[in-house]
């Protein structure tokens, strides 16, 4: 990949990284999860590109009044 | 007026708390950037695939039209599923967890509640589509010379109306049911039916999914067709009053 191509693709990588960091911070402080055990959700949002973090944020977290 | 502001503020906070706004913005930015890049790198991707399979794949010159097609097709299909996923609980989830009862004991009408949800949906969609339009416009202008940026930015109004129609249908169904998944399945069903109806001659012209084609047509300089816009407005005019009517008769189970 040339330098120009890398610069063009870089915003996509940054977006993905930001999503994963947000999910990881939420995952660290959360005790209750929907559907899957806590550690499985970690793999879901870390390994699955884009859709992993989205599925975690939409479905994985068990939201309560304190969120 | 104060109640309306309070309701909209509550919905905005809810949108941030549940990460709906974040997810939508990231998705829009992703498709705005990825669509022109995919089109631009398509010859390289195909030659790599061809090299591993020992075949030669010849494709014509890639133009901004290919980037535009990637943008409208991918964004409208995957974006629809994402929008349904993040909006299906807008009323149904609040019914299920009982939080909407705290609103209904106050002097707040059902129309105001649904109205606040629609207003924040419109704001969320507007922010996301503006971001995707800017990203797509910039990347396509940079990668493909001669891209008409201004008509493209204007054409995103059709994409906004398309997503607002889907979001309104999700909210309308969400007011009718008690489980978010039912709202999601119902909205997905209406979207699939509308896509199928779009293939039928004459009637299909009124399918709101054709708003996506209007994006390409506007950029290419074709005249405006009113039928998909009328179909979208008609669908909202039918589903939203039905939803509000059903919602106003809703009684908490416990």
Could you explain the architecture of this structure?
The complex is a heterodimer of chains A (about 70) and B (about 250). Chain A has one domain. By secondary structure, chain A is an all-alpha fold. Chain A has helices at about 5-30, 40-45, 50-60. Chain A has three helices and no strands. Helices cover about 70% and strands about 0% of the residues of chain A. The radius of gyration of chain A is 14 Å and the shape is elongated. Chain B has one domain. Chain B contains ten helices and no strands. Chain B has helices spanning about 1-15, 20-55, 65-85, 90-95, 100-105, 110-145, 150-175, 180-195, 210-220, 225-250. In chain B, α1 crosses α6, α3 packs antiparallel against α8 and α7 (about 150-175) crosses α8. The longest helix of chain B has about 35 residues, at about 20-55. The two termini of chain B are about 30 Å apart. The model of chain B has no long low-confidence stretch (mean pLDDT about 85).
Distance between the termini of chain B: 32 Å
Beta-strand content of chain B: under 5%
Total number of distinct structural domains of chain A = 1
Order of helices and strands of chain A: HHH
Instruction: Give the uncertain stretches of chain B in residue-range form.
Output: none
C-alpha geometry of chain A: elongated
What fraction, in percent, of the residue positions of chain B are helical?
Answer: over 70%
**Structural class computed from helices and strand pairing of chain B:** mainly alpha
The strand count of chain B comes to 0
**Topology as H/E string of chain B?**
HHHHHHHHHH
Q: Indicate the low-confidence ranges of chain A by residue numbers.
A: none
How is the main sheet of chain A built?
none
Distance between the termini of chain A: 42 Å
The proportion of residues forming helix of chain A, as a percent range, comes to: over 70%
Portion in strands of chain A: under 5%
Query: Gyration radius of chain B, to the nearest Å?
Result: 20 Å
Question: The biggest beta sheet of chain B, please?
Answer: none
Dominant shape of chain B: elongated
Whole-number mean pLDDT of chain B: 87
Largest interface: A-B, 15 and 19 residues
Instruction: Calculate Rg of chain A over CA atoms.
Output: 14 Å
């Amino acid at each position: 990949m040339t330098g120009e191509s890398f610069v063009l693709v870089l915003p996509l990588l940054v977006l993905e990284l930001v999503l994963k960091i947000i999910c990881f911070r939420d995952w660290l402080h959360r005790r209750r999860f929907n559907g899957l055990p806590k550690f499985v959700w970690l793999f879901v949002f870390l390994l699955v590109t884009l859709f992993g973090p989205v599925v975690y944020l939409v479905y994985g977290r068990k939201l309560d009044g304190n969120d | 007026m104060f109640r309306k502001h309070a309701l909209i503020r509550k919905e905005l906070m809810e949108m941030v708390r549940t990460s709906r706004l974040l997810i939508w913005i990231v998705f829009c930015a992703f498709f705005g950037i990825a669509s022109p890049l995919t089109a631009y790198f398509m010859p390289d991707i195909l030659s790599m695939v061809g090299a591993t399979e020992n075949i030669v794949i010849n494709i014509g010159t890639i133009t901004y039209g290919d980037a535009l097609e990637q943008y409208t097709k991918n964004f409208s299909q995957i974006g629809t599923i994402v929008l349904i996923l993040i909006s299906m609980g807008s009323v149904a989830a609040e019914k299920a967890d009982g939080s909407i009862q705290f609103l209904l004991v106050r002097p707040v009408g059902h129309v105001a509640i649904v109205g606040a949800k629609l207003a924040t949906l419109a704001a969320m969609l507007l922010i996301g589509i503006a971001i995707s339009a800017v990203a797509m416009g910039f990347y396509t202008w940079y990668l493909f010379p001669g891209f008409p940026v201004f008509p493209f930015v204007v054409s995103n109004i059709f994409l906004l109306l398309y997503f607002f129609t889907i979001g309104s249908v999700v909210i309308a169904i969400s007011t009718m049911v008690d489980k978010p998944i039912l709202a999601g399945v119902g909205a997905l069903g209406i979207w699939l039916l509308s896509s199928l109806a779009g293939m039928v001659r004459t009637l299909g012209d009124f399918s709101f999914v054709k708003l996506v084609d209007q994006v390409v047509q506007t950029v290419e300089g074709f005249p405006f067709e009113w039928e998909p816009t009328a179909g979208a407005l008609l669908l909202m005019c039918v589903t939203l009053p039905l939803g509000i009517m059903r919602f106003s008769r809703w009684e908490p189970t416990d």
